[in-house]
Amino acid sequence: MLNHIVLFRRLKDVAPDAAVEAALVERMHALEGQIDGIRTWRVAANEVDRPICWDYVLESGFDDVDGLNAYLFHPVHQALIADLKTRFEWAAVDYTVPLQA
Fold first, then answer.
1. Which of 59, 72, 85, 101 is most solvent-facing, going by the fewest CB within 10 Å?
2. pLDDT at 101
């Protein structure tokens, strides 16, 4: 399984807006049912206020790089990215997890 982890941090010049962020998070949750190939999916907000912490995390899993790419370039995902870019910066890590016997 290929895991895809993304951390989101509010841009320094963007004020928190709970309603806007809740709508964006809801759209992130909805991707799981809109894009084939997603095997695992979790979106969560940071719960501890520390300078090192980012605001949100997305943890997802795919069968392989082709599955990840189908998700990354899907039009629904691309539309969400366009809106996320106005509020957040992000960092991502993609890594393989061996299947357990």
1. 101
2. 60
